[in-house]
Design brief:
This protein has 67 residues and is mostly helical. The protein is built from 1 helix and 2 strands. It has one helix at residues 12-49; strands at residues 2-3, 6-7. β1 and β2 form a beta hairpin. The longest helix is centred in the middle third of the chain and has 38 residues, at 12-49. The chain is rod-shaped and about 65 Å long.
Amino acid sequence: MVILGMDLGSHWAFIVWAYAIALVVVACLITWVLADYRVQRRTLADLEARGLRRRSRQGAPAGKEAA
């Protein structure tokens, strides 16, 4: 079988499935990271709304961001 000008020979099905599975795995990992990022941001916003602050901001003057 010839795909994109490459002759994949008798192993074309294995090659195509391997790329397809790799693509699905990478897409799942990206989705997982984005979902976890949203959860962490929500959790942090909830904690800050309750009055808890990050340790890096405790010594910072009011209205100034810590480095």
